[in-house]
């Protein structure tokens, strides 16, 4: 994976839920930084869409159409989903292309008809799930079932399927998510032994634990313990 790139902290004006679950995110890698640049900032897609600009509405609609297509299938989103490809790579999408395409199209689903930002730096997937599911004595059972299916996914296509449904649930409750961090996690998920590392990250976020470096030899069963209640 490429070297991490530090990103600026979210400004005080960032809207969406702001609580102790929204923390400083770990440094972004190349794919996460691409997503952050395309969504964030004064001329990013999020600002243009929430500001009512026609270009933002058109791009968001195109991302939604591309959500169930493979990377590169819809020319209208190429500028939003493209990423560098190593020389000599074959015709199949790279793991980085899959990650950026998936993160950006999920954002397209999440932001639809929402005037407040649904991409919020530092709002990890596990943290968003904790907010959506609710306290142990009053859980939203459909959200719990979807999150459990999501974190036990074993293939990228299975994970993407569950993410699309989960993001729709987040959208309904107006709960934001960090799509730049998600892009990096999707790259990592596709690497050897990467799935268990990503699960542990989400489990720690869900449990409200502060970020600590993830040991390479952590057994995947550890990632499930933080999700138990």
UniProtKB/TrEMBL annotation:
Which stretches does UniProt call biased (Basic and acidic residues)? 29-39
Q: Where is this region: Disordered?
A: 1-53, 209-229
Coiled-coil residues are none
Q: Which Pfam families match?
A: CRISPR_Cse2
Q: Which ranges are annotated Polar residues under compositional bias? A: 8-20
Q: Low complexity: which segments have biased composition?
A: 211-220
NCBIfam families xrefs: casB_cse2
Q: What is this protein called?
A: CRISPR-associated Cse2 family protein
- Organism from which the protein derives: Actinomyces urogenitalis DORA_12
Lineage at the top is: Bacteria, Bacillati, Actinomycetota, Actinomycetes, Actinomycetales
């Amino acid at each position: 994976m490429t070297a991490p790139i530090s990103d600026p902290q979210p400004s005080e004006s960032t809207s969406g839920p702001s609580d102790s679950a929204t923390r400083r995110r770990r440094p972004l890698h190349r794919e996460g930084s691409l997503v952050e640049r395309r969504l964030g900032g004064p001329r990013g897609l999020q600002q243009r869409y929430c500001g009512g600009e026609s270009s933002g509405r058109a791009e968001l609609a195109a991302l939604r159409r591309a959500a169930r297509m493979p990377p590169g299938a819809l020319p209208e989103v190429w500028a939003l989903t493209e990423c560098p490809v190593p020389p000599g790579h074959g015709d199949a999408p790279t793991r980085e292309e899959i990650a950026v395409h998936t993160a950006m199209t999920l954002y397209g689903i999440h932001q639809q008809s929402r005037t407040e930002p649904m991409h919020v730096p530092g709002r990890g997937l596990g943290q968003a799930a904790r907010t959506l599911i609710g306290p142990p004595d009053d859980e939203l059972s459909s959200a719990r079932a979807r999150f459990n299916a999501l974190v036990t996914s074993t293939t990228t296509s299975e994970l993407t399927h569950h993410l699309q449904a989960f993001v729709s649930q987040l959208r309904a409750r107006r709960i934001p998510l960090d799509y730049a961090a998600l892009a990096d996690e999707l790259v990592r998920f596709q690497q050897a032994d990467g799935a268990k590392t990503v699960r542990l990250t989400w489990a720690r976020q869900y449990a409200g634990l502060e970020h600590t470096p993830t040991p390479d030899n952590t057994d995947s069963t550890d990632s499930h313990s933080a999700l138990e209640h």
